[in-house]
Amino acid sequence: MTNTQQQDSVRISEAAHKNHEELFPNHKSTLKVTDPELIEVFDNFAFDEVIAQSKLDTKTRVVLILASIIGSQAVSEYRVMVGAALNVGVTPIEIKEILYQSVPYVGMAKAFDFVHATNEVMSSRGIQLPLEGQSTTNPETRYDKGLAVQKAIFGETIDQMYERSPKDQLHIQRFLSANCFGDYYTRNGVDIKVRELITLSILIALGGVESQIKGHIQGNLNVGNGKDILLDLITQLLPWVGYPRTLNALQCLNEVVNKPNS
To answer: What is the 3-class SS of the chain, one letter each residue?
Structure first.
């Protein structure tokens, strides 16, 4: 079989083609030329079979995939997916909020390249930077507002964390309240239910953070993201994060929802 015949024999399903075109209209895949068998398998799986299991709208699904790509540290794919996100109606502010939400979870060393990638894609699209500010706190209010958000999501667990913390580690609990929640969770741009989904997507992609995954599964349940939504999230991330992280996340979900009083 010649190369041309092999390329022509790639069998992308009608649904996979439609869903791919929605994100990447008129995209000419170089990998379809060099790796036709891989593209056939991946596109039919990720853009047809997996999506067929979802009740999430396209925009939400792309938001969660974009968040997971940051957690996976796949900056090249992130650039492509930022463009796709803009194509399906994710706003520049929403994209920035996904990115900013990742900072306390992946660390600035890992987020730094994604900030530059985001700015480059947005500038190429004619989007004026900086965007409108979304912060709602200041140095005087960040701790109290962050603590309030923590308690709104996790309830009495936060008081227990403070009570159980050794005195020489109490500053970490204060940092969590003031920085992770006060500086980031209190921002406008996306609501708290979406932020918790974004956070969970990042954590699943990171791997090795199962205790935090369980905590944020519970947090998602507490803010109204039910098991069906979380299972949908895990399913949609599968092609992008792989089976080991997917199966770990699924185990965490089952442990949390099956525990007493969940």
So the answer is: CCHHHHHHCCCCCHHHHHHHHHHCCCCCCCHHHHCHHHHHHHHHHHHHHCHHHCCCCHHHHHHHHHHHHHHHCCHHHHHHHHHHHHHCCCCHHHHHHHHHHHHHHHCHHHHHHHHHHHHHHHHHCCCCCCCCCCCCCCCCCHHHHHHHHHHHHHCCHHHHHHHHCCHHHHHHHHHHHHHHHHHHHCCCCCCHHHHHHHHHHHHHHHCCCHHHHHHHHHHHHHHCCCHHHHHHHHHHHHHHHCHHHHHHHHHHHHHHHCCCCC
Q: What is the pLDDT of residues 173-211, one digit of tens each?
A: 999 999 999 999 999 999 999 999 999 999 999 999 999
* pLDDT at site 9: 62
**Closest residue by Cα to residue 149 from 105, 176, 181:** 181
Start-to-end CA span in the chain (Å): 57
Q: Write down the pTM of the prediction.
A: 0.95
- Ranges of the chain whose pLDDT falls below 70: 1-9, 261-262
Work out the burial of residue 114: count CB atoms within 10 Å of its CB; fewer than 13 is exposed, 13-18 middle, 19 or more buried: buried
